[in-house]
Amino acid sequence: MALQPQNERPFGFRDKLGYLFGDFGNDFTFIFAGSYLTLFYTDVLGVSAGLVGVLFVVARCVDAFTDVGMGRLVDTLPPSRGGRFRPWILRVCVPVALASVLMYLYFARSWPYAGKVAYMFATYIFWGSICYTAINIPYGSMASVLSADAGERASLSTFRSVGAMLANLIIAAATPLFLFRTAADGTQTVIPERFTVIAVVYGVCAVACYLLCYALCRERVQAAPPREAKRQSFASLAKALAGNRALTAVIGAALLLLLASLLGQGMNMYLFKDYFNSADMLSLVGFAGVLPMLALAPFAAKLSKRFGKKEAGCVGVGVAAAAYLLMWALRLRSVWAYIGLMLVGSVGVGFFNMVIWAFIIDVIDYQEVRTGSRDDGTVYAVYSFARKLGQALAGGVVGFALAAIGYVSSTGHVVQTQPVREGIYTISTLVPGLSYLGVFLVLLLAYPLTKKRVEENAAVLRERRGEAAQEP
């Protein structure tokens, strides 16, 4: 499919900043949910951890339809005045923020148990499977149309990751200070009504960020008009995507990556509250994990350009795997030693996260080289579904594992037993360590887009587009 530049101002810092704000807005609700939603369900609503795991699995089954459906929708609808993807950010920014707030209504704790379960399922699926999908698929797909230049598109991945890190920094550093209180015996519990307040504040911040993304970004590359485009049936498209080795490999890596990172975020609440008895340290963990990654951000694009995204990414996740497996083996009792090794792991995975979105653009290019059809929205939707599946696996593992080790869910103050606390430590270190090791192996052995291959694909597409531009 030929691509044609639109008559727009040149790509520049405004677009990068706008794209940063897009993920900043996304992650105000996404990271808050990944880090605190299970805690809200178990310690405020009093729902069993196992049932929370069931919720996440069911929601991902729904996502299998909504994610791909949204991808096909943005690929097949004719562009509006603002472009093919950008207008969706304006349309959905308020609904996704409201849907997020609905998940954290503290007064639902007084409802009958069946009512709380129904409320949990309805609000989570409405937020994640409908509203978040409707804004995240167009936002992610938009990176490939802001510029046709591979270097400029790679820089968008770095800026997107910085946006995510800023949201993570705010959520990780500020939320624990406002959410927890210390009991007379020194243990820490949550303040239920503050979940709702925090969700409202983060929702407002998300809307502001989305509006900045819409205002600062411009689409410059458009697909050939529908009358010239080669139409594909869904069956032929599914077959083409299944045969895309780069896509299947990056999906496998995404599943393991999200399992590791989101499980770590979700378990940190329990690890620092129940194992280290230091929930107030979560704010320091937020700074320790994000600030070094922000320092690496200016060098991420340069390193990936020099050594290749696959090659540099392997090193990053390899460092993270080693750090978490070492934490598991040492069985640390010192919270400071734990934070130190977590910092090392965070730097490794943080670097990988800064380049992962550029992987997806390379996969889209690879799809076009193989089939002649670009399918930006559909390819991104399939990857987004994989990320959500990773999120579900993380949430499911958190819920199921807590239930398996005997964690007691309660709306009151409960001191967990020593075996439960030891189990929390094992889950928090061994599972992420093995998952990051899996990402390393998938990239090394299965992902085909080396630096050389990416450059070859870019040359093929430049030649094709040049030929298309010369046709009458």
Q: What quaternary form is this?
A: single chain
Strand content: under 5%
Architecture per CATH nomenclature, i.e. the level-2 architecture: Up-down Bundle
Count of alpha/pi helices:
15
Strand pairing plus helix content: what structural class?
mainly alpha
Round the mean pLDDT to the nearest integer and report it.
83
Largest sheet data: 2 strands, antiparallel
CATH fourth-tier homologous superfamily: MFS general substrate transporter like domains
* Low-pLDDT sequence parts: 1-6, 224-230
Strand order of the largest sheet: 1-4
**Rg (C-alpha, Å):** 22 Å
What is the C-level CATH assignment? Mainly Alpha
Series of secondary-structure elements, N-terminal to C-terminal: EHHHHHHEEHEHHHHHHHH
What general form does the structure show? globular
Binned, the helix content reads over 70%
Number of DSSP-assigned strands: 4
What gap, in angstroms, lies between the N and C termini?
16 Å
CATH topology call: Growth Hormone, Chain: A
**Number of domain modules:** 1
Note the topology.
Blueprint: E1 3-5, H1 13-43, H2 49-76, H3 86-102, H4 113-141, H5 143-146, H6 150-179, E2 180-182, E3 188-190, H7 192-216, E4 221-223, H8 234-242, H9 245-275, H10 282-307, H11 309-330, H12 335-371, H13 376-404, H14 418-445, H15 451-470
Antiparallel strand pairs: 1-4, 2-3
